[in-house]
Write a structure and sequence with these properties.
There is one protein chain. The chain has helices spanning 3-17, 27-30, and strands at residues 38-47, 50-61, 65-78, 83-84, 90-91, 108-110, 115-120, 123-132, 136-140, 146-152, 169-171, 180-192, 195-206, 212-219, 229-230, 233-234, 243-246, 259-266, 274-281. By secondary structure, the chain is mostly beta strands. It has an eight-stranded antiparallel beta barrel with strand order 1-2-3-6-7-8-9-10. It is globular, with a radius of gyration of 21 Å.
């Protein structure tokens, strides 16, 4: 089935399912997705005569947020992106023109009571899901555009993967996991206004036999301020402990047997511990 037929059938199924919606979303309807499992989410919306289709994965973790949050950058394709197929037919939903609508983990948040916050390429949208079924919800955003969400316990992979690519798998590593190691060491120290500051270099090493697509870390590190960490993105605010971090949106992967470097500034010379909350492998 080509991309256009797949999207068309999928949209039709969503609207047929709409006949069974329960009405106003409540915590009871969405609560099944707040059990700590990785949730596959698909989003469809219509804008300016085009259909956009987003897929990705979200997670609820009490340590990080009370909401479902984005754990790896969602992919989006649009009917306005047209390419020529091998048979020389014009083909909408070109998978060679995939966009990344969300820049970080907090760019898509869904609460238990159906409140949605989305930041799509700098445009902030906030709205309430108005109609829900056990696996689908619909809400109209403050830009007057309806968004349809489809929830599943099956994780989504990326658009455009070849048939030989394996699916994305997210897991919570066991304690003392040796497949991924995180270390840090002091590279600089100075004193300002009688306060000592320490600059660390951190290294994430992928010793597994899989490509890391995304990573969520937890640490009680006391940063100098919110801007004092780079090449990692903080998910919660500086007042919440432990702090949680993820890879920046521009980091697509950590390859097998490779190292990823980040840095931070603290007020303590003690090496902080970074624990792995979840990891998504390719």
């Amino acid at each position: 089935m080509n991309n256009f037929n797949f999207i068309f059938v999928f949209i039709c199924l969503l609207f047929l399912t709409n006949r069974n919606v329960h009405g106003q979303c409540s915590s009871n309807v969405l609560s099944q997705y707040f059990n700590g499992s990785v949730i596959g989410i698909k989003v469809i919306y219509f804008e300016s005569g085009s259909v956009s289709y987003m897929i990705g994965n979200s997670l609820y973790s009490a340590q990080i947020s009370s909401d479902l949050f984005n754990i790896n950058s969602f992919n989006s394709i649009s009917s306005s992106n047209v390419d020529c197929s091998r048979s020389n037919n014009r083909q909408p939903f070109d998978v060679n023109k995939v966009s990344l609508p969300f820049s970080d983990a907090r760019s898509l948040l869904i609460s238990r009571n159906g409140a949605v916050s989305m930041n799509i390429k700098g445009i902030k949208l906030e709205f309430q899901l108005s109609y829900c079924s056990s696996s689908m919800a619909i809400g109209v955003a403050n830009n007057s555009i309806p968004y349809t969400f489809y929830f599943s316990f099956n994780q989504n992979s990326q658009f455009g993967l070849s048939c030989n690519d394996t699916n994305v798998v997210t897991e919570t590593p066991k304690p003392n996991n040796k497949n991924i190691t995180i270390s840090s060491n002091i590279i600089n120290q100075w004193t300002t206004n009688n306060i000592n500051y320490y600059q660390f270099d951190g290294i994430i090493e992928n010793k597994s036999k899989k490509v890391i697509k995304s990573l969520i870390l937890s640490s009680s590190v006391q940063l100098r301020d919110d801007s004092s960490i780079w090449d990692l993105v903080r998910i919660n605010n500086n007042n919440q402990q432990p702090s949680t971090f993820t890879l920046p949106s521009y980091v697509n992967q950590i390859a097998i047997d490779s190292k990823y470097k980040f840095g931070f500034i603290t007020k303590s010379d003690r090496n902080p511990t970074f624990n792995i909350v979840s990891v998504t492998y390719q």
